[in-house]
Amino acid sequence: MDPTTRPDAHRLPVRVYYEDTDFSGFVYHASYLRFMERGRTELLRDLAGDQSDLHRDADGLVFVVRRMEIDYLKPARMDDALTIVTATRELRGASMHLSQAVMRGEEALVRAEVVVACVRGGRAIRLPERLRQTLTPAGAPSADTNS
């Protein structure tokens, strides 16, 4: 799924700094993971509030990355202005599938599919209904199975 075509996708501007690059002057691959983590965090913040509040109000609920598939398409360089695009793809019982892209203008540099599990005390738990309603985009599938 291409999150960049979704009108409900979250967009986070990010600037590439020296600390994000490797010795070649290109963005180090792990820096993209940090950029995308910020994108997921800001999506959640915009839709459901601060994660620390959610953690407190939901008795210790946290989100952990369960699976991530990444395609590195083109490199970014220091001072590039990027946009991290994040969209909910599917909600399941205890997880959500997100599509992400790191863009430089209209050009996709990185694409990722991410499955994030809802966890409390080290065990998967069902996404709270309030959060499920907030995160479900129009037309997105939502399953009642735990995964």
Rg value:
16 Å
The residue ranges in which pLDDT falls below 50 over 5 or more consecutive positions are none
Mind telling me the CATH superfamily name? Hotdog Thioesterase
| Relative helix content | 10-25%
Can you give a write-up of this model?
The chain is α+β, with helices and mostly antiparallel strands and 147 residues long. It has one domain: Roll (Thiol Ester Dehydrase, Chain A). The chain is 23% helix and 37% strand. The protein contains three helices and six strands; from the N terminus they run βααβββββα. The chain has helices at residues 29-48, 51-57, 129-135, and strands at residues 10-15, 62-72, 81-91, 95-104, 107-120, 123-124. Strands 1, 2, 3, 4, 5 and 6 form a six-stranded antiparallel beta sheet that branches. The longest helix is centred in the first third of the chain and has 20 residues, at 29-48.
